Amino acid sequence: MHIEKLEHHLQGVRNQLKHHPLYAQLESVEDIKIFMESHVYAVWDFMSLLKALQQHLTCTTLPWQPATDASVARFINEIVLEEESDFNEKGEAKSHFEMYLDAMQEVEADTSKVLNVIANFTDLQHIQQQIDQANLDPSEKNFLSYTFEVINTQQPHIIAAAFTFGREDLIPDMFLSIIEQSGENGPGNYAKLSYYLKRHIELDGDDHGPLAVKMIQALCGSDDHKWGDVFQYSKKALEQRIALWDGIAKKLAENKGNLVDAL
Fold first, then answer.
1. Could you tell me which of 121, 169, 124 has the C-alpha nearest to residue 18?
2. Taking the model in full, what pTM does it have?
C-alpha cells in the first residue's frame, strides 16, 4: 500500500521528467554525444549511492558480522555484482560506468573531462568543496551535490529512495531508436552503445527495478516517518534530474544554434 501511495504522489514530477522538452531535441548521434558528456555524472554517482547502500546494509568491515536483514543484503549484493562487474559485449568484466565510457568513446564524446573531475573527488568529508571547485556546469554540480547530501544523511532508507526513484527510464529506448535511424549500419557502428542500452533496459526492467522497490519496502516496513522521508527525497531526486535535463537541453540548443550560425 505504501509503495502504491508513493508512486501516486510522485506521478506529477515523474510526468514532468517523462515529457521533458529535452527528448524532442535528441535527434542525432551528435545530440547523443552532447547528452552523454553530462549524463555520465549521473551514471557515476549512481555507483556511489549503490556502494553507500552496500556499506550500510551488508558487512564490508572486519571482523565480519551477519547483516541485519539478509534478504536486503542479497538485493544489494546482486545489484553490485552486475553494476560493478558486469560483462560487456565482448564478455569482459567491466562496471557499467566503464561500459558507458566505452560507449562515449564510440560516439566520439569526450571522456577526459569526467575522468579528470572524478579523480579529484577523494573523500566524503570534503566532497562538497571538491564539487564546488570542479569544472562542471551548475546543473551538474547541483546534481552531484544532492547525491552526496543524500549519502551523508547516513540513512539507508533515504539513500535507497534516491537510488530507486531518482532515475530516468526513457533514454535507452530513445537512444536505440536514434542509432537505428543513423544509417544502414547505425547499430553496427555503435555496438558498445547498443549493448549498454539493451543491457540497461534488461537489468532495470527485469531485475534491478523490482529489487530496489523490495529493498525500500523492507527498509521502511510500516514506519510512516520513513515513508515520508522516502517521498521527500525521491521527489527532490527527480527534481534534480529534471534540472540536469534542463542544463543538457540548454547545451543542445546552443550547439544547434552554433551550427545554424556556421551555415
1. 169
2. 0.91
